[in-house]
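Margin note: ligand = molybdenum atom.
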Amino acid sequence: MEARRRFLGVTTALAGALAGCSGGNTQQAAADADTEPSLLGKVPSDYGNRSPHEKSKRTYADSKTPQAGSSRTPLQDSYGIITPNSLHFERHHAGVPEIDPAKHTLLVHGMVDRPLVLSVADIKRLPSVSKVYFVECSGNSGGEWSGKGAPDAQRSHGLASCSEWTGVPLSLILSEAGIRKDARWLLAEGADACKMARSIPVEKAVGDTLVAYAQNGEAIRPEQGYPLRLIVPGWEGNINVKWLHRIHAAEEPFYTKDETSKYTDLMADGKARIFTFDMDAKSVITAPSGGQKIAGKGFQEITGLAWSGRGRIEKVEVTTDGGKTWTAAQLQEPRFPRAFTRFRMPWTWDGSEASLACRATDESGYVQPPRQVLVEARGLNSNYHCNAIKFWKVQADGSVTNVEA
Ligand SMILES: Nc1nc2c(c(=O)[nH]1)N[C@H]1C(S)=C(S)[C@@H](COP(=O)(O)O)O[C@H]1N2
Ligand SMILES: [Mo]
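Resulting structure:
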């Protein structure tokens, strides 16, 4: 009954919104007839492209060292939970290497009984799995620490994307190599010029970590680590080593440049946290969001994405009054652990200013905190791991801007 009433509410609101343009309907239909294709269209193509009318793109932050840069996913334009491969965010420390898969190998050595050199073809012969996981740079939303924040969802949250990854469980490769019982840590190293390398506890490596070779049904893109990358579900982007070519088992962590000079979190007291692997629960409203404009009063679905490195998203609450009241949004199924979850909430915009935000809760019971709580706990010395609640302001003219929370 309630659902039916809501449905009627929606159609009434839509009817109201659409009434404004109904006067020109007959003329419009005549104009459409002129543009509807009457000639035969294009023939099938060998690799598809999107419609030329679709313009959504990654934003690339230009820098003095462009190869050590990043591009961001246009989350505000996204539908569902999967990021198209062409729009997956990028973060490279030494550019995208050009790698011939026929020559690329993965070396597994150190505290193993049978050191291995596996070709890409060897790896593809092994039993594989396909799993949906997000990858998020721990620098994502770093600009939000200041309280000023970015003006749109792409710049505030776009260093996060979500794909179906296909690959071989790392546990299988480690047992083939005969990893020794006293090995506690692995080094994972990339084949790019900076030799990105991170230490991974064996427990996580034999848990859900994948040596992935495919993304959303095709080979991983060069930008994402072709032909092999590590997927370490729910852990900070940096440890998902791309162009993976070496795994070294040892007793102790390696304290590489990438986990000491970077990707540590300097606290207010001057001490730094190291190995802060988990990405905490986070969410963002993607529509209506910063930079967009609501066309007019009436029905406007509020939708967005939520994710947590600690498992499934259990709840997303939405406020339209700056945090005074919160309402549980509808969560779209399936909800995969450590993947984007799409949430939706019906809303009718009455034409007045509104302050929108969302707050995620994950299956561990962790609730996404307000920015002030994060700042009190960690200070302002580090740019990493900001998962604060993000507010958008709807102005009276329908335009949506950032709010200084
Ligand atoms: N070999 C290698 N692996 C790498 C990087 C890199 O520069 N080189 N960048 C890391 C960082 S900081 C992040 S956030 C993720 C980004 O993955 P993506 O470019 O596929 O989005 O890859 C990680 N793996
Ligand atoms: Mo990153």
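The chain has two domains: 66-273, 282-402.
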